[in-house]
Write a structure and sequence with these properties.
Length: about 180
């Protein structure tokens, strides 16, 4: 696993379809419990003129928010991603090929409060629990991808020329390897 404690900013996305990403760490595999945690502060919202998607978690595709596989939190106000789910709230997603489960967290994505995003996948690959600000907001038990994924923070501009900014104060990712 890995972690950092400092403010990182995904900044200055001014052209439509531009992608900003922060990726790192080793791939995670099935049969292991793993945890992902970050603190996020939105500095910009999608507004119909300047829109973006934000994916925060584990993903197989390092170049797009339209991943085929992953476990992540998602902001997609207009439902332009391949889950086609529009919400002003954080979405909790487990995606396995063309099958996915999306749960609306009920927690508003906004520019006034910082959100601590945390999820944990169990070692039997059959449950992921999603927490926002230490409150359980979703438990997903299907469409859990179990092959290689990497932690990532990814923002994809989908419309407009205005600037989109997001701050992340820390990132924690840990694989708990099963021992024989």
């Amino acid at each position: 696993g890995f972690s950092f404690k400092d403010t990182l900013r995904l900044v200055n996305q001014t052209t439509a379809t531009s992608v900003q990403k922060l990726i790192g760490g080793a791939a995670s595999y099935n049969g292991n419990k793993y945890e992902f945690c970050t603190s996020h502060k939105a500095l910009s919202l999608s507004d119909g003129t300047n829109n973006y998607r934000l994916l925060v978690g584990l993903n197989d595709n390092l170049n797009s928010t339209n991943s085929n596989y992953g476990i992540y939190f998602l902001y997609d106000k207009y439902g332009t991603g391949n889950t086609a789910t529009a919400s002003n709230n954080w979405l909790c997603v487990c995606k396995n090929s063309t099958n996915f489960t999306v749960v609306d967290s009920g927690v508003l994505y906004n520019t006034t409060t910082e959100s601590k995003l945390y999820f944990i996948k169990n070692e039997t690959d059959n449950e992921v629990k999603f927490y926002i600000n230490n409150v359980l907001v979703a438990t997903i038990t299907n469409n859990i991808y179990t092959s290689a994924m990497r932690p990532m923070l990814l923002s994809e501009k989908t419309l407009g020329t205005g600037t989109i900014n997001n701050d992340f104060d820390y990132l924690f990712y840990k694989v708990h390897k099963n021992r024989i």
